[in-house]
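Chapter summary example: a protein plus magnesium ion.
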Amino acid sequence: MAAKPPRVKYACDECGYESPRWLGRCPSCGSWNSMREVQAAPVSPRGGLAPGRRSAAGQPAPEPVRLSQVDPTDDARFPTGVGEFDRVLGGGLVPGSVVLVGGDPGVGKSTLLLQAGDHFARAHGDVLYVSAEESLRQVALRARRLGLDDTPLRLIAETDVDAAVDAALHVRPKLMIVDSIQAVSTADADSVPGSLVQVRECAARLIRLAKLEGIAVLMVGHVTKQGSLAGPKVLEHAVDAVLYLEGERDTQFRVMRAVKNRFGSTDEIGIFEMGDAGLRDVANPSALFLQERAAGEPGTVVVAGVEGSRSLLVEVQALVGPAPFGGTPRRQVSGVDYQRAAIVLAVLERRCGMPLHTHDVYINAVGGVRLDEPAADLAVALAVASAFRDRPVDAGTVVFGEVGLTGEVRGVRQAERRAREAAKLGFRRCILPRSNVPPGAAAADIQFFGVSTVVDALRAVEAGSA
Ligand SMILES: Nc1ncnc2c1ncn2[C@@H]1O[C@H](COP(=O)(O)OP(=O)(O)OP(=O)(O)O)[C@@H](O)[C@H]1O
Ligand SMILES: [Mg+2]
């Protein structure tokens, strides 16, 4: 079939707006009598592009290669020097990658990026920090507080993204930090900074800069009241990694997780402690989480959890008290999954004969971590039972296991890793799913109590406390 003859269309001299018919005034830029006739590209029968068509820049169409010809080892990584941040990134920053760091106001995003930028500049070369929210003085003040007065990092206070891109093209840094994407804008988009159009357009420019020049870009993003990143969803699709810095306002712990990472696992979490000198890596979070533990009190049990490649011991606390007569009993759960906790309470009620429907129940995982994995179920069950009976669980006991609807205790992954971490921190008894008891357990410095049901587990607890 022959190609159709070229069509005629009209384009505005001033702004390039195209229209299929002639117009006296351009609807896009408002200029009068600016529409000129142009030849549209010939349309081929295959639905658009004529063979031999050249791409927009006048270059021939790119030649596809075979995957086997691509060297995947090209991606060098540059560690930022902030260990926990690198862990979540998957080992460090990849040149040309774009990473979005989100978090609530005041959680410590600027602090973290200033610290990471400083380390990076000392280890790998130029870093450009674009502060769009704070003046140079404010950033300098923070740097002084963090003990980074003599940082080699280069700083500009700029809200115009195009000026920031120009600065980057001039400095040619290895890393560019933009704080924040909601505070920068471009004169080319006709809306206020922080609007969807502005955020999308500014991010597109920064992503283009990163990809074309091989500069790693770290962008700060604000989160909405609902806890998701403010701005268009397309932003999360366009960047290479999306990380969240989270933390309770009144605790010093901060947890970083990846919701997307093109260069690493999204299972890893980073744990920081916020202090006068900024965010500090927490190398041994289990010890820290347990340091203020009220061992020997009813209602506290330690669970051996796993987050990414790290095992984590966390104290689960429960408080149970009679509910006001005639009222709905209260259920307050923080740090563990609410739905899973509800199942555990129902199992305790039906299978273990505890009348929890007449009691208020409060459950909390200490330290601001979230235990979403099913392995925390058994610890929740034993903490609630301990609180209900007002009898403490032996302080040297650690627990893990998933609880099913019939009250069975099911095996979980990485049992040995969990037990090893617990033994390292001085725990001597481990209540775990029977199917998870490692062979040759007798030789280990921790004693295993394999259980098949929650009732079994309660018996094992009694035996240990006796
Ligand atoms: N003088 C100080 N001493 C100790 N800690 C401080 C001091 N000033 C600020 N901080 C800590 O730093 C936190 C603010 O950090 P930062 O400015 O990095 O947060 P942010 O996430 O960038 O906030 P924003 O969303 O407002 O930009 C405060 O919540 C506080 O915990
Ligand atoms: Mg900030």
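Key point: Residues 43-51 have pLDDT under 50 and may be disordered.
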